[in-house]
Specification:
Chain lengths: 299, 126
């Protein structure tokens, strides 16, 4: 038999609390029921769920200051698009990019009888959240550009007519740092060689940082594509360690017809990709490089 | 004396609501009880606390669609490392937070079904 107070039912025959005007105390194993909905965000239902089978335009009902609700929204498998009314005000004023995630957990809070504030958390990323742009100290150039982002020229000479050689050598390195990642360019020359840079966007010797990101992304892997050929993804070791690709040309006139009679050049294109848990795989930097090794009779 | 409906207790002698199948109305000063746990995230105890004294691998119990819970986690000064099961899904890239970044964590869980739980964690220094 239902329980009544002053003729008003407070617990019905199905053991549902009814007409409760307040509650003081503590609760333990007492939860909201999850109710499947179709298009109406009903604030009489504190936990709602919907697995979408097509795009949905939502409306709201039973809004009242202080009421809150949680919507468990499954947009899969086709990443259908939900549309909410203008009454829903999103965090930071930006409607989430629904296509970025398959599952959304949306907390809705009525701030009056009309307006609702919403916070949406996405799970299982499917979007295109690119790695943030870093800062270049060596100019980024496309392969179609006519001038150089990195240029190296090596010339060597020797009084010994028959013992002349030259080497030009670049090493692109990807470094995982505590705050993101950086790309170093190293000059590598044999000690007997003579290294010169001209027409370069920056001059350097030894190692310079050509690109750096400090977004705080946790970079796990890198990939270096050479001349449009995709490289393998390589796991970046701990901070400070290097994964690199080396490019070199050389000229040797030993035993040939004399200094200046031999040279070699190489023009190439390096595209470097990074992978992190927060972003989709992103090509963060591209460099055009030109190498020239000339065995000259003096410089 | 307990109050029964059709032989089923709905308010026991300790004034605890029992066997309630629904509730319509409003509430005021009505809060979850805080329960100290060790390793089990129990969705029958919606507000849980743990001050870690060692690394902990958590499991879950009493999961059901729509159930929510909050875990107030103190990783202590060491700090100790919590490990959650693969049933717990984290937002954005799906990566679990870097627990060592903060000592205190407030972790909210929502059961999407009897297996999958989606969570969000906020770290605090004090």
């Amino acid at each position: 038999m239902a329980i009544k107070i002053s003729s008003t039912e407070v617990i019905d025959n199905s053991r549902v609390l009814q007409n409760i005007t307040g509650a003081n105390g503590v609760c333990n194993n007492f939860h909201a029921a999850a109710v499947a909905i179709t298009t109406v965000l009903n604030f009489a239902l504190p936990v709602m769920s919907l697995t979408m089978s097509g795009p949905v335009t939502f409306t709201e009902s039973n809004k009242l200051l202080g009421r809150s609700a949680l919507l468990l929204l499954d947009t899969s498998p086709s990443a259908f698009t939900p549309t909410f009314s203008a009454n829903i005000k999103w965090q930071n004023g930006v409607t989430p990019t629904w296509g970025d995630y398959l599952y959304w957990q949306i907390a809705l809070q009525c701030i009056d009888g009309t307006n609702v504030r919403g916070i949406a958390l996405g799970y299982e990323f499917t979007g295109t959240n690119n790695y943030p742009a870093g800062t270049f100290t060596v100019r980024e150039r496309l392969i179609t550009d006519t001038d150089y982002s990195v240029y190296g020229q090596s010339q060597d000479f020797s009084n010994d007519l028959y013992d002349v050689e030259a080497t030009s050598d670049f090493n692109f390195s990807v470094v995982r740092t505590a705050t993101g990642a950086r790309i170093d360019i190293q000059e590598i020359c044999d000690t007997a060689d003579y290294w010169n840079l001209s027409n370069a966007s920056v001059s350097f010797s030894g190692t310079i940082t050509a690109w750096e990101d400090t977004s705080g992304a946790t970079v796990t892997d890198c990939r270096i594509d050479i001349d449009g050929v995709a490289g393998a993804w390589l796991s970046l070791p701990s901070t400070g360690s290097l994964i690199s690709d080396n490019f070199s040309v050389s000229a040797d006139v030993a035993g040939a017809s004399g200094p200046g009679s031999n040279s070699d050049s190489l023009a190439g294109h390096v595209k470097i990709w990074l992978r992190s848990s927060q972003y989709t795989d992103t090509a963060v930097a591209e460099f055009r490089f030109d190498l020239l090794a000339a065995a000259a009779n003096g410089v | 004396m307990a109050i029964n409906i059709a032989g089923t207790t709905v308010i026991d002698n300790s004034r605890v609501l029992q066997n309630i199948t629904g509730a319509n109305g409003v509430y005021n000063n009505f809060h979850p009880a805080s329960t100290a746990i060790t390793t089990v995230i129990n969705f029958s105890t919606p507000f849980m606390t743990l001050t870690m004294s060692g690394n902990v691998t958590f499991t879950e119990s009493n999961k059901s669609a729509g159930r929510t819970a909050i875990l107030i986690l103190d990783t202590n000064t060491t700090p100790f490392a919590p490990t959650f099961s693969a049933n717990i899904k984290w937002p954005a890239g799906g990566t679990a937070p870097t627990w060592g970044d903060y000592r205190y964590w407030e972790i909210s869980f929502v059961c999407w079904d009897a297996t999958i739980v989606r969570a969000v964690a906020a770290g605090f220094s004090a």
